[in-house]
Amino acid sequence: MNGQTRVSLLEEFTGETCPPCAVANPALDYLLEQPANAAKIIALKWQVPIPSPPSNPGSLYQTNQAEIDWRYRGVSSSGYGYPSQYTPTHTVNDGIANAPTCFIDGKNQWAFGATSDHPYYLSNTVINTAAAVSTPFSINMATSWNASFNNCVVTVTVTSSSAFTAIGNLMFRLCLVERYIKFQVAPGSNGEKIFHDAVRKCYPTTLSGGVITSMGTSLPSSWTAGQVQVLTINCAIPSYILDRSQMAFVGFIQDDGNRQIYQAARTAEASIPNDAKAGAVNIPLVVCSPTVLPTVTIKNNGPNAITALAITPSLDGVSGANIIWSGNLAALTSTTIPMNVIMPATGSHTYAYSISAVSGGDIATMNNDGELIFFNASTYFPAPVTEDFEGFAFPPANWLIPDLGSLNTFVQSISVGYASFQSLTYPLFYAPHGEIDEFYLPPSDLIGTTNSELKFDLAYQQLPGSKDSLKVFLSSDCGNNWVKMYSNGGTSMATAPLPNNTSFSPSGTEWASIIIPLAGFASSPQVLIKFHLKADGGNGIFIDNINVKAGSGTPTGSQNTEQNQLDFSIYPNPANAHATVVIHSTQGPSIELELQNALGQVVYSRTDQLSAGSTTIDCRDLPAGIYFVKIKDESRTFTKKLVIAK
């Protein structure tokens, strides 16, 4: 078979009420949009009702329910009937039974080398393997939009490079997607606001009693080399489309006999002639003044100049006076416009704006809104600050988790905590390497405190080679200058051995208590503290029981701070017959020592009252590998990696 360049189709079955989907999707989107991958694979995201349908009538599932149901359900439920299995050892299901699940070219991901159908196991290697499969078909699609962009005629040209005979009915399927959607409020219960390549409508579809009975256009079952088939498909655009400038069509050829997809293609987004698009709200994340002067950025997203528009601002949902702008905003350029002064109270606020009355009209009005969450620190709250993340409100009152433009963010874990069931966590497992996120404690007034300190509990597990880092900064001048108080990462930050599975849920012994003396800031009336995380492929991180209070005056801590380093060392490392553990200092009456293997099993321990000095671990009967040495006293746990080489 003389093959043509293949573009694979990835179908993700995800959901707006599915918490694992919200965690997995940012990293999946990041992978798919890498330039090397974008030319090889196209995505369709089916927002399925797994584990339950969203109640919001404007959700992605509810607005396209019949088509989504047909695509993910089994034949026994009047659906298309993908036989899902999730992994090769699971029971085969008639239809998609789990979310998130990914199929490539109508097949399980493991047909191309992945371990399972979970999007985590999609990789550059899997994408390259799928794209290398020969195909006899090429697809060319041309679009002709009407003036209102509520109807499009798609002309499809399918060409074969060699003879081909289908096993079953050969179909051309055409789907309208929105390449990028950002909701102001999550449409489902999993908190997900950003969606890529969501399927919004398919053409043509046949319904009977509100149920899809078929989807697509029939193609000849037998082809000769050089055969050409031209299809003209009329596409009425549904009114629920959120951003018409993000509309694109995805077409693919599928053999319903074995459900294999032989080729896929995608058109460019619609070129809207008049489109004013909301950009950034320009307010510092933290301000320390009772008055604030916001500015907003607006982009001309179309080819025609914009000469006038109106902007309606709002603070915490209360609209302010309109700003009328006039000028000449050229095609595909942006401008920054000053707004009226606002006077927010101390605390977290949402500043938003909406564009209207655009010269020449504005066809795509769903991208006319922008917003920013910021914190006004004109008032500082007396210490102590105590937070265990056990409340229903998240983030807690007067805490700030800013939107730094990354794909992930800090979230509340409702099942894992230190001596509790809730904590603060970050999806390291799915985060792109180098992604940065932060969170801010409430502005604190330390007047009247002595020996002030910051204390928190930390659980972190690496994956091989990962070097995630966590830093804590403090500012006493409203964030103009920051002092680094804590810095740790990689192996020295790990509180648990390397995993033998793909998720991290720390046990009670896999936490470390961190105590950071706030030297130089005792009795400071204005203190801002922020945590800064840089992701680098780790398995998981949890933070709990954050406290800012008067301390004991004795610098302690189980991990590195800027003033206090780890309390023990190991040599030689790697070790062969013996390893010596040197305890540099102690604050407690006794110290316990444990040695764990990579599975978390304790292979050596001493529970007698050790003190400062050294002790020896006999390694002669231990197999080569990676181990973790833990030193514990009444309040602290120190962990370091030990390599045993034979």
Low-confidence stretches: 553-566
How many separate domains make up the residues? 4
What is the radius of gyration computed over CA atoms, rounded to a whole number of angstroms? 29 Å
Number of strand segments: 46
Question: How much of the residues is beta strand, in percent?
Answer: 35-45%
Please, what is the average pLDDT?
88
Gross morphology = flat
Number of helical elements: 5
Tell me roughly what share of residues is in helical segments. under 10%
Main sheet makeup: 6 strands, mixed
The CA-CA distance between the termini, in Å, is 53 Å
Structural class: mainly beta
Could you please describe the fold and organization of this structure?
It contains 5 helices and 46 strands. The chain has 646 residues and is mainly beta. The protein folds into 4 domains: 8-135 and 175-200 and 239-266, no CATH class; 276-376, Immunoglobulin-like, CATH 2.60.40; 381-550, Jelly Rolls (Sandwich); 568-644, Immunoglobulin-like (Sandwich). Strand 42 and strand 43 (602-610) form a beta hairpin.
